[in-house]
Design brief:
Order of helices and strands: HHH
InterPro entries: Complex1_LYR_dom (IPR008011), Complex1_LYR_LYRM9 (IPR045291), Complex_I_LYR (IPR052151)
Organism: Gopherus agassizii (Agassiz's desert tortoise)
Helix content: over 70%
Protein name: LYR motif-containing protein 9
Largest sheet: none
Structural class: mainly alpha
Radius of gyration: 15 Å
Family: Belongs to the complex I LYR family. LYRM9 subfamily.
Distance between the termini: 24 Å
Strand content: under 5%
C-alpha cells in the first residue's frame, strides 16, 4: 500500500478536480474509519468554501488542501510502519 499523495496533484486547478483528487486519496487510507473521517472532512470543507469566487483564493485553498493531504498521507504512513520498524529493531 502506497501512502504518498496520488499522482495528478499537479493537474488540480479547479474545485471539482480537487474534490475528486482528495476522495481518491481517501481510498488509499488504511481503514474504513479513517477513510470515512476524511471523506466527511472533505465534504464539510467544500460546503464551507462553496461560495468562494475569488480565483486567487480558490488557488490558495487548492494548494493548501493538497499540502494537507500530503501531510495526512505521510502521518498515516508513519503510524502504520513505525510499529513494524520498532519491533524489527527489538529482535
Amino acid at each position: 500500500m502506497t501512502m504518498t499523495p496520488l499522482r495528478g496533484a499537479e493537474l488540480v486547478q479547479k474545485p471539482l478536480q480537487l474534490y475528486r483528487y482528495l476522495l481518491r486519496c481517501c481510498k488509499e487510507l488504511p481503514t474504513e474509519n479513517i477513510q470515512q473521517h476524511y471523506r466527511h472532512a472533505i465534504r464539510q470543507s467544500f460546503r464551507v468554501h462553496a461560495d468562494e469566487d475569488s480565483p486567487e483564493r480558490i488557488q490558495q485553498i487548492i494548494k493548501r488542501a493538497i499540502e494537507d493531504a500530503d501531510w495526512v498521507m505521510k502521518k498515516v504512513s508513519a503510524a502504520i510502519f513505525l510499529p513494524i520498524r520498532l519491533s524489527e529493531s527489538c529482535s
